[in-house]
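Rotation project, supervised by the postdoc (A.L.). Task for the rotation student: set up a whole-complex structure prediction and record inputs and outputs verbatim in this book. Inputs entered:
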Amino acid sequence: MEGVAMKLPSFKSLSPNAISIGHRSFSRVRRSSSLSVCSAASSSATISTDSESVSLGHRVRNDFRILHQEVNGSKLVYLDSAATSQKPAAVLDALQNYYEFYNSNVHRGIHYLSAKATDEFELARKKVARFINASDSREIVFTRNATEAINLVAYSWGLSNLKPGDEVILTVAEHHSCIVPWQIVSQKTGAVLKFVTLNEDEVPDIEKLREMISPKTKLVAVHHVSNVLASSLPIEEIVVWAHNVGAKVLVDACQSVPHMVVDVQKLNADFLVASSHKMCGPTGIGFLYGKSDLLHSMPPFLGGGEMISDVFLDHSTYAEPPSRFEAGTPAIGEAIALGAAVDYLSGIGMPKIHEYEVELGKYLYEKLSSLPDVRIYGPRPSESVHRGALCSFNVEGLHPTDLATFLDQQHGVAIRSGHHCAQPLHRYLGVNASARASLYFYNTKEDVDSFVVALADTVSFFNSFK
Amino acid sequence: MAAAMSSSCCASSLRFIPFKRTLFSSIHFPAKTLILRPLKPSEIPSFRRTIITFQKISTGIVPPLSASSSSPSSSGDLQPIEELPPKLQEIVKLFQSVQEPKAKYEQLLFYGKNLKPLDSQFKTRENKVEGCVSQVWVRAFFDEQRNVVYEADSDSLLTKGLAALLVQGLSGRPVPEILRISPDFALLLGLQQSLTPSRSNGFLNMLKLMQKKALHLEVKGEEDSSSESSFVSTPETKDEASVPEVDSESKPGLVEDLGTEKIDDSDSGSNGVALGSRGMRIRERLEKELNPVELEVEDVSYQHAGHAAVRGSAGDDGETHFNLRIVSDAFQGKSLVKRHRLIYDLLQEELKSGLHALSIVAKTPAEV
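Outputs recorded:
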């Protein structure tokens, strides 16, 4: 028993070795005693993805203190990671550490603290660049979140490059953050927005997208993985088609970067955006990846300190990217904590995370579709179609708000109901709202089981009143 | 007996509300606020009577209510339950007696199941509760005693239950009582309804809409029935309301924007503009043809002096816009649209020669 207790803390110091050591010791413990130490629920049997070892979800559970609580009298089952992810202790420690030991304004300071803060801040930038395989860390611009990053491209690149009659191609499944900025900018510039609809698999129609691309196209802005449909788009091919006509491609990678390996050089995208808070990092920080020559050609977005070179009364000269697009004091602690999140995820390994989620996501899909009257949106999983680990669904005759409320109040299950910032998509699907359960690598099969049991109970409760 | 209520706890546009019901007596306090207590014992179930009596004895001092109905009263953290309409008190007590959360939800759904469905013609934009994740519609109208009657519907069962609660609790009550309700009572229901005005807070938004509609009815009713006929409204809404193709749902001269206040204190029928020749002609015609019990013709052309349609087309003296208030037996048995048609037909000549628009209140003597 003591051996178990002593091994636990090793999870918190996250280097790749620590994880595997912990892993091995747990297996040993399991064989010798029937203790299930990983998850908070002592009553659940430990289910493993491979024999003799503990699943990823169970292994990392202790890193996320927030998951060990009760809501409304039931154990919390958090299935809303697509809205925001939970943060491991390492990330929280990094943030705390920054403020406690070396908080200082970056870039211009001379003194020790500011030098240290600057180093850590720029190191975080390098970590993010490495994480997505950008060729240079100067291609990473820190923003408040992905929404701001898209707005940056819209206002900076869009306003100076789009002319009347130019076309911007989007899909009906885009998040509002990748629709509204383009609407605003197209109104100002006279550009035209075109939308790709879904095919019968409930995936954006790639053939139609290809046909839509023409010499008039200047930008294709699409999601990598859909936050409602769980489908993914073949970005590499789209980039090839777009570049053939001289168009740029912006990839909304909010639902892909946290869950799988994303390689911007391989994708060859011109712009890519993501938010920290969906990938175990804090809120208040996100980033834009932009190809070096593109960023260099773009005028500033916000004006102020940091982004200037020289300031006179009647004009100013601007800094090189990325500073050119980072006006004002950045979210320093948050950026550093994002770096810690990148470390944490890399410590586990994105391929491993992805593999786990594919399986868990498939399990969720299967169990959910086994319930009667459940309609899941997006493509069916298959050998060729890998869904993201989330399911947006509706139950026949019931409103998603009712489901979500009851699931929360009676079962402690946290899902989301509404339009998930994708009103056009819901309109296209002919529904007002949907419910969505989304997973991350800290969820387990037990979470999915609890959810499905709770959902069945919820449905029968409401059905008894009809 | 009628009780007059001063305006301190309602929007300032409410000035005088005649009550025709005998259910209430007013307890006068030195302060400006009046608190109405339901009095008729026969109307109240016996156990309720005890509570009311007890309360009447012990509380000589009831704290004055704060101005806005949506903020809790100044005396404590929650609005006292006794200030709620009787049916709502019953509902709250019922929910309080049900301890188990699941049973509460069952109770809520039960209410929703028994909610009278709302005709789809009333599922309009202006009846929709804004900011709701699910769709909720609320409709309000006066009954013969000028109590507000509500109907509601929703596509979500839980919000339907909440709507049913509110409909049952608030329907058949007079406007001031409805406006006084603070959403605090939701806490007493124990349904863990948050009272924060967030997007997913259907309950708060529903209550607010119901109160807004009650106020709206009151303001509209005042315009129709009170002798002070001058009112301020934006030219746009007046024009829309008085175009000959009158929408039967909306009454003319309607103040759509509740922010607009009906302020004018003057007791006179007109605001001092003497009728010109057209005005006199209109008056003569209507008197001759409709034999009205009451007739008011008010020239409000000056209010429209700004917009272009007026400048070119006036004809005599720029008399282009009039408010009409006619009480006549001639309207008996006629729908609102028919009444307006009648009037427009009588005034055809004027309309052709520069009369731009009319804002009409047409009632039978019984309706006043």
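Student's summary: The two ends of chain B are 19 Å apart (CA to CA).
Supervisor addendum: The longest helix of chain B spans residues 202-225.
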